[in-house]
Specification:
175 residues; mainly beta; two-stranded antiparallel sheet; 1 helix; 7 strands
Length: 175
């Protein structure tokens, strides 16, 4: 155990004695160039009524774009927006078309619920529980055979115990 400790300690001393040498040159990131992008998409699904589109362009800190959609009432909403350092975010919203009146839901006729007649519950009678007689407990007899133990022989030492020692991998005791 001591050999392992000494080995680890000597390795730690050896590593701390080695001068630090840079392994690689540190490369600093250059400032990023301003973002430039353009994108657009559109969805036209007559089955679900999902009709929308968007387009946007960015040059540095200036962003401009628009999106449009057909609202559930049939009105076409168009939003044009810009954003820059001086003015912040600005949006112009306009609506085209008139709301289409939704058809009123069909009236459903309901029949009155049928009357159900209930009979009075049948009377249930309970009988008194039957009496159960118990007999006296069973008597047990004494054990048939007795076991006798012989005394253990005493051990005699030539001289009294004056030192006791105990050791394990973790604890050591000597008295």
């Amino acid at each position: 155990m001591a050999a392992k400790f000494i080995t680890v300690l000597s390795l730690a001393v050896a590593v701390s004695a080695v001068p630090l040498v840079p392994v690689a040159k540190i490369a600093y990131a250059e400032p990023e160039a301003p973002a430039h992008y353009e994108f657009q998409y559109s969805v036209h699904d007559e089955h679900t009524g999902d009709i929308k589109q968007q387009q946007e362009a960015r040059a540095g800190d200036d962003v401009h774009g628009s999106y449009s959609l057909v609202q559930p009432d049939g009105v076409h909403r168009i939003v044009e927006y810009t954003s820059d350092k001086e003015n912040g975010f600005n949006a112009i919203v306009r609506y085209e078309g008139h709301p289409i009146p939704q058809p009123s839901p069909a009236k459903i006729a309901y029949a009155a619920p049928a009357k159900i007649a209930y009979a009075a519950p049948a009377k249930i009678t309970y009988a008194a529980p039957a009496k159960i007689a118990y007999s006296a407990p069973v008597a047990y007899a004494a054990p048939v055979a007795k076991v006798a133990y012989a005394p253990v022989a005493k051990v005699a030492y030539a001289q009294p115990l004056t030192q006791v020692s105990f050791s394990s991998p973790v604890i050591s005791y000597h008295h």
